[in-house]
Predict the structure.
Amino acid sequence: MTLVATLDTSFDLLEGETLLEGLERTGHEVEYQCRSGYCGSCRTRLISGEVRYISDPLAFISRNEVLPCCCVPVDTVHLEVARTYEPEQPSLSEELEPQSSLDFNKS
Ligand code: FES
């Protein structure tokens, strides 16, 4: 598994998952159309790290951008994308946070 950090959380990419699928699973809304590296809709800014393309992308990308629909991280990556909805499963960082803020006396 590979760690993916975004602007507000981090998570492990699951076996066989593309970077886009991992972002979607953890509540990040990334635009997409082809999901195959052709259209460029999913273009996302890479803050640090390196990715490997599953298939050669045809869409133009700058040096500091990636197409998450068709790549996986080589090692830990940091992306400029924020979470926009609550994921079905909590992210790794949320699973590890202590639950000290719970107040069972509130109604
Ligand atoms: S969705 Fe088309 S290049 Fe990623």
